[in-house]
Amino acid sequence: MPEPSKVWSISELNGALRDLIEGSLMPFWVAGEVGNLTLHRSGHVYMTLKDASSQIRAVYFNGVSVCRKLQIREGLKVEAYGKVTCYMPRGEYQLNIKTLRPMGVGDLQQQFEEMKRKLAAEGLFDESRKKPLPFLPTRIGVVTSPEGAALQDFLKISLARFPMLTIRIYPSPVQGKGAELKIAEGVRYFNRRRNVDVIVVTRGGGSLEDLWPFNEEVVGRAIAESSIPVVSAVGHEVDFTIADFAADLRAPTPSGAAELIVPEKAAIDDLLSTQKGRLLAAISLYQERAGRQLEALLNSEPFRRPAFFVMEKSQQVDFMLKDMETLLKNAASEAEQHLNSTSEKLKAISPYAVLNRGYSMIFRPDGHTPLTDPADAPAGELLTARLAKGVLQVRSEGKPGK
To answer: Which of 6, 15, 45, 255 is close enough to 60 for a disulfide, judged by CB 3.0 to 4.6 Å?
Structure first.
């Protein structure tokens, strides 16, 4: 056996293996079944991923909360994304997980995105379709599982905030095959009965598979078609479903739905008390003003001495009549003077005015047509002569010189 040129320590060997492994493999997805699962109090998760003939150790740093949410358990098939590393103290290679999901979630996520795009293109998620919630709903319909913690949370918060509520429950499975049909039927049931002011569709948290009924098209359409406002409270705050997008309001949790829908009775009582105080103050102010006006009216002259008021007004009428008579007399006098003046002017320019000075007017036999030319009066024609004090019948002797 040749003499070694270098003797490696174990740490150097494991370090070289680590550099070789980590430098030659990029992060990738791997599928396997969970085994030897440990959720450590440090927040890290340890497991093995295996198939029918092999296995690999895996670590998911700070992954406890994610695994609990996804309900990761031994025997569950998962897909993990990460990078192979070498744990030098033991000389073991392992998968350092960055992302973990139950197997098949990728397909479900793709279905979710496709359904979301389809319904959004039809306008089912448009803000213009959203209906406002009533300020104080007195009747609430809940579509959920009667045995679920979500219902208990909702009831506890709602009734604590406003004990006089009427809450009607439509029992429905909230996960598993066929659950979507019952959920959609619950929404339609309340719309047919018209016995609630708002509808709540709810369940607690779970994996994507657990929440999947709320991503089905039949549920999204039933919610969008509801004439009663619908609140979706499905899963945890980080979970989003088709029901959330179709609903008029999304609540992060069942408890959050109760807080968003039901106002606190104490707050309403305070508001009513404040409004009552303002109303009473306004009424008092109005009464005070009306009282002052009434007092001023009662102290006025007509109310204190009504007979005197009537006599005073009667005297004013007399004065007005006298003034009218004076105005009429003056107007008549002025009219008469104007008439006389006009008459004198007409008389001055009248042709009959000159008759008083010895003149006369000769008319044709008809007595109306004045004669201005002797040639128009043939000899022997009977004419009328108008004098200042009467008329004479005269006979024409014809034009002189004939």
So the answer is: 45
Average the pLDDT over 100-106 and give the result: 77
Please indicate whether residue 122 or residue 109 has the higher confidence score (pLDDT).
Answer: 122
| pTM for the predicted model, two decimal places | 0.52
Domains plus CATH for the chain?
10-103 (2.40.50.140), 108-263 (3.40.50.10550), 352-395 (no CATH)
106: confidence class by pLDDT, cuts 50, 70, 90: low
State both tokens at 100: 């973990």
Q: Both tokens of residue 237?
A: 């705050």
Question: Is residue 402 predicted with pLDDT exceeding 50?
Answer: no
Q: Three-class SS string for the chain?
A: CCCCCCCCCHHHHHHHHHHHHHHHCCCEEEEEEEEEEEECCCCCEEEEEECCCCEEEEEECCCHHHHHHCCCCCCCEEEEEEEEEEECCCCEEEEEEEEEEECCHHHHHHHHHHHHHHHHHCCCCCHHHCCCCCCCCCEEEEEECCCCHHHHHHHHHHHHHCCCCEEEEEECCCCCCCHHHHHHHHHHHHHHHCCCCEEEEEECCCCHHHHHHHHCHHHHHHHHHCCCCEEEEECCCCCCCHHHHHCCEECCCHHHHHHHHCCCHHHHHHHHHHHHHHHHHHHHHHHHHHHHHHHHHHCCHHHHCHHHHHHHHHHHHHHHHHHHHHHHHHHHHHHHHHHHHHHHHHHHHCHHHHHHHCCCEEECCCCCCECCCHHHCCCCCEEEEEECCEEEEEECCCCCCC
Mean pLDDT, range 263-282, rounded to an integer = 83
* Mean pLDDT to the nearest integer, 341-369: 78
- pLDDT band, very low/low/confident/very high, at 308 (cuts 50, 70, 90): low
Listed range (123-137, 151-165, 317-331, 357-371) with the worst mean pLDDT: 357-371
